[in-house]
Amino acid sequence: MSRPRPENTAGLPAGGSPAPPRLRVGTDVVAIARIDELTSADTGWQDGIFTARELAYCRRRRRPADHLAARFAAKEAVLKALGTGMCAGMEWTDIEVVNDRAGRPRARLHGEVAATAERLGMQQIDISMTHSAGIALAQALLVCAPEGDNES
């Protein structure tokens, strides 16, 4: 008696199931007082770190330094999730934190940061930010194509 012929599983792992996406996580903590000091001492540094949209959003808040610190932490968390840190050709403004209509933060990637994410096979990015008791914390989660679909 002949055995049934296996189903065509070209491109699938040995078990025949699609490979799961890769998850990459980054976390960062920032002292709000440090951002407040930098803001008070010199506003010029902000232009190289934050986009005009980010600055406008934060300046409308009751405590702008809290929101700036959370956005800075989010930018660092994205870089950590990418596994690169700040590399040649990258700018802080290549990562822009915006809010959707419901107020949920979103990361928009531009320039070399976006190119790096594309090389990793990034399909989605999620960020979460908070600030309390003098610190700002952010996490970034990148969902990337399964291993082998893109070089990392």
Automatic annotation (TrEMBL):
Q: In the record, what terms sit under GO molecular function? A: holo-[acyl-carrier-protein] synthase activity
Known catalytic reactions: apo-[ACP] + CoA = holo-[ACP] + adenosine 3',5'-bisphosphate + H(+)
What keywords were assigned to this record?
Cytoplasm, Fatty acid biosynthesis, Fatty acid metabolism, Lipid biosynthesis, Lipid metabolism, Magnesium, Metal-binding, Transferase
Q: Which Gene3D superfamilies match?
A: 4'-phosphopantetheinyl transferase domain (3.90.470.20)
Q: Where in the cell is it found?
A: Cytoplasm
Cofactor(s) needed: Mg(2+)
Question: Domain named 4'-phosphopantetheinyl transferase: which ranges?
Answer: 24-129
Q: What's one Pfam family the UniProt record gives for this protein?
A: ACPS
Physiological role: Transfers the 4'-phosphopantetheine moiety from coenzyme A to a Ser of acyl-carrier-protein.
Q: Which family does the UniProt entry place this protein in?
A: Belongs to the P-Pant transferase superfamily. AcpS family.
Q: What is this protein called?
A: Holo-[acyl-carrier-protein] synthase
What is the species of this protein? Streptomyces eurythermus
